[in-house]
Amino acid sequence: MEHFWENIMVITAARYSVVVLCTVVFLAVFELVTSYKNWKEIKNGNFSVAMATGGKLFGIATIFRYSIEHNDTILQSIGWGAFGFILLLFGYFIFEFLTPTIRVDEEIGKGNLAVGFISMMISIGLAFVIGASIL
Question: What is the spatial distance between Cα 16 and Cα 13, in angstroms, rounded to a whole number?
Fold first, then answer.
């Protein structure tokens, strides 16, 4: 049984499962902090919400990519991934704060493609910075 847990395919499946579960939880948190309902808006064709959500998904995946690369255990990867997510979430709030003339959340919900695109790029950019900082 000991060799079972050392098999690279088992380790990969375990890490994959954990990252998928964390991604679902983290997206639920983003759903709570936005004024719109992500999946309802995406279903209705709101491309701005789709871009912003896609950026968040890519950001979470990128953070976990670095977390897995630099940590030996699944628990360490989860810890760094969660910490990276908190930083990514904080970045979302900073974006809203630093643009007082634009209500980012509201504009994305209304379908403003420019704001959705910038939100996506901020999530992606921050994810690379956060990921590069993970040890």
Answer: 5
